[in-house]
Design goal:
Elements lengths: L1 H10 L1 E4 H9 L3 E4 L5 H9 L3 H9 L3 E3 L2 H10 L2 E7 L2 E5 L3
Parallel strand pairs: 2-5
Antiparallel strand pairs: 1-4, 2-3, 4-5
Helix pairs in contact: 1-3
Length: about 100
């Protein structure tokens, strides 16, 4: 688990929402709320921890990016933290 965390941490980067819009259109972008650690979410998805991912989805800590959120990020030209855990791109809006 620690190895996966370290790998994902090295692959985390800031990216403009506009660069992610084509992936959003394909339904491949998940939003990680500020109450959840981006790397922790990525690790759970990478190790296929279905129970934990389901709890986060149910608690709305992890969700597909909504159309409303996408529009807001587009209009504000928001830069997000992101990490790829195939087939998903996880994003988090942190100040």
């Amino acid at each position: 688990m620690q190895e996966v965390k370290e790998k994902l941490n090295l692959e985390t980067a800031r990216i403009s929402w506009k660069e992610l819009e084509r992936f959003f259109a394909q339904g491949m972008v998940l939003n990680v709320t500020g109450s959840l650690d981006l790397i922790e979410a990525g690790c759970a998805i990478a190790k296929d921890d279905t129970q934990q991912v389901q709890r986060w989805l149910k608690g709305e800590q992890l969700a597909k990016v909504s159309d409303q959120q996408a529009l807001e990020w587009h209009e504000l030209d928001t830069e997000l933290w992101s990490v790829v855990v195939r087939p998903w791109i996880l994003v988090q809006d942190r100040p």
